């Protein structure tokens, strides 16, 4: 399972930070940061979700008010949002 985070879409509500510790606050930019991710394209960051963090990662995606976070299953199908 993998997560994609569009930093450009992020509006800095930091709800994802409260739900999964892989998201961190970047107060100077007013945006979240997805730790241990790689930038796939401009401002889109991707990382694998550890099995023990799947619930928290999914919840972080669900609470994002602007749908800046998407979760994909192992077959590449988008499951959230």
UniProtKB/TrEMBL annotation:
One of its GO terms (molecular function) is iron-sulfur cluster binding. Pfam families: Fer4_15 (PF13459). SUPFAM superfamilies: 4Fe-4S ferredoxins (SSF54862). Keywords: Electron transport, Iron, Iron-sulfur, Metal-binding, Transport. This is Ferredoxin. It comes from Salinirubellus salinus. The lineage of its organism: Archaea, Methanobacteriati, Methanobacteriota, Stenosarchaea group, Halobacteria.
């Amino acid at each position: 399972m993998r997560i994609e985070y569009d930093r450009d879409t992020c509006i800095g509500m930091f709800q994802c930070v409260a739900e999964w510790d892989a998201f961190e606050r970047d107060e100077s930019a007013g945006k979240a940061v997805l730790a241990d991710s790689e930038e796939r394209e401009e401002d889109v960051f991707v990382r694998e979700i550890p099995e023990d963090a799947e619930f928290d990662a999914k919840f972080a995606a669900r609470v994002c008010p602007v749908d800046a976070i998407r979760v994909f299953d192992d077959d590449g199908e988008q499951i959230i949002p």
